[in-house]
Amino acid sequence: MSAVLLTRLKITDLTALTALEAGRRMLPEGHALERIVREELFLFEPESGVAPAAFEQRLHEAIETSNFFVNPNKERFRFLTSGQRGATWSPPEGAWGILARSRDDTRDEGLRARLLREHPLPGLAAIRRARAWWLWTRDASGAPAKEYFYVRLGPLQGPSKGLLLNPHAEASLRIFGDVAWKDVERFLAEPALQPAAA
Amino acid sequence: MARAAVLQIPGVNCEYESARALEAVGIEARIIRFNEASSVLSEFDAFVLPGGFAFQDRIRAGAVAAKLPAVERIARESESGKPVIGICNGAQVLVETGIVPGIHPGRVELALAPNRAPRRPGYQCRWIHVRPSEGPGRATFAATIALDEFVPLPLAHGEGRFTTADPDVRARIESQGLVLFRYVDGAGHPADHYPDDPNGAMFQAAGITNVAGNVLAFMPHPERAAWLRMMPQDWPGAWGERRRAVIGKFDALEGAGPGRFLFASLAKRLGVSTPQGAPA
Predict the structure, then answer these.
(1) Burial call A154-187: b when 16+ CB within 10 Å, e when fewer
(2) pTM of the full structure
């Protein structure tokens, strides 16, 4: 059971805007890409046998008072303890998502070491990272057509197919509805699957 | 006279250096803006996608530029055998289009992933050594350098690790000789660890070509080493000695640097007679 931190820009996210513009140019008439939001996900993994509550309160304070994770001038965040996060992660209203992680180890050892140097948090084993892309889409009938847009704008397959991640460097998890946090944890902790098998 | 187009995309920063390096070997170079009518590109014999940060590397390095009509046009022109060099960010663009390695045409088969080096994550900006290998790209991009020769070149990238998740593509890149340039140590031996290997690329690849050998994705910056004056004075080895020997000799400083071979090879491929001062 990991605690969760989600951050996103509160100033204009030019990367998301560029993705929106580039994505719209890749779609045929009648298919609308209405909005894209980019969110960074951090999972705080406890050591085996340690209750996450042992460090979560201090972790929350560290996130609020340090600038390791969030620059309050330009970012907003949601911190959810393992108890607060619930069993599932829900996309924002009307959206669906693509969670992208590096095909390498998702642990950010540098960030963890930096955090622990100034905020001793006994029991924190790892910080894992991924990026969520939230998309608001609509086909000619008004349906979100998630599978269609996922193929067109998700993992890069060819010059006109795929945009948001390169599957040779990143693995992806579709978030078409509520997703169990344990599946997200597994997705980040286990070795990335071959693109064809994902 | 052979003509090469250097594509200027918002965010690139090496287009003028690349054009000058082409001119130095007798190729007429013209900088073409990304939003000019892409049909103009058919007038050129070769293309360079220069280094920099196209579209600020938004989404991912090369991701947005790979969708440009001009890049699509260059991909089409390459199908007729016209040479294309992507340098650093240009290499990232070529990989994102799928032109390199092009084993299964129309498919993206590689990524240039973030550098992987022990305790040194992120951007690398320094000099390394590369050495050519035999392969389909040799006649176009390495004809003026011997296989036992290795040269120092600068590199500057955060995402330079050639990688693929497809084991078949990986095997074919090796078996078909598509790794045209590899990182080596100061003695010319394979760079099996950091810092000689700067990013953890598969096969220590610094440059990979397409199957036909006319498109090269090259991570170091040969245009930043095209003149002897660009070499660091304290660099060890033969090129360092050459550089130290011309300190204060302004005419000699304008001689060819270690990166010139790539442009000279391209000139040879295009049938351009090598101007004075360029390597044979």
Answers:
(1) bbbbebebbbbbbbbbbbbbebeeebebeebbeb
(2) 0.95
